[in-house]
Amino acid sequence: MRFESLDQWLQWQMVLHDKAIELGLDRVGQVGERLGVVEIARQVITVAGTNGKGSSVAAYENWLHQAGFAVASYTSPHLLSYNERIKRNLEPVSDADLCSAFEAVESARQDISLTYFEFGTLAALFLMQKWQPDYAILEVGLRCRHQ
Fold this sequence. Notes:
Strand 3 (86-88) and strand 4 (91-92) form a beta hairpin. By secondary structure, the protein is of the alpha/beta class. Helix 4 (95-109) packs across helix 5 (116-131). The radius of gyration is 15 Å and the shape is globular. The protein contains five helices and five strands; from the N terminus they run H-H-E-H-E-E-E-H-H-E. 45% of the residues lie in helices and 16% in strands.
C-alpha cells in the first residue's frame, strides 16, 4: 500500500494536483472507467443546490434506513473527520476501508492527476459499488458566481 494511514493519504492528496478545483469530468471519467465503477446502487438520489444539501441527505438517509433499506451516502465537506463524507447505513466509513479505496483509485489513476475532491469522490463511488446498497445518496454542490 502506498501509505499506511488515512492522514498520510489525505495529506498527499492535498498536493497531488496543481489546482484545488479543476472543472470537467474527463479525468474522473477515465479513472472511474479504469476502476470499473458502473452501478453504485440499485437507486441513486442526487441532492443538488446551494443550501440545505447536508440536511436533505441526512433526512433521506434516516427515512430510508428506518424503512429497512441499505443506504450509502457521500457528502462534502466533513465536520469532524473525513470518514463522515462516506457513510454506510448511517455509519461513517472506517479508516481501513478508506485506505483500501484510496489504494484502488491510485492504482487506476496511473498518470492522471486528480484533485483532492476528485480522489475522494472516486473512492466513495468505488466503495458504494462494492457495497451495492439499495440507495446511494450523492450530494452535488452548486455555487453561483456574481460578476
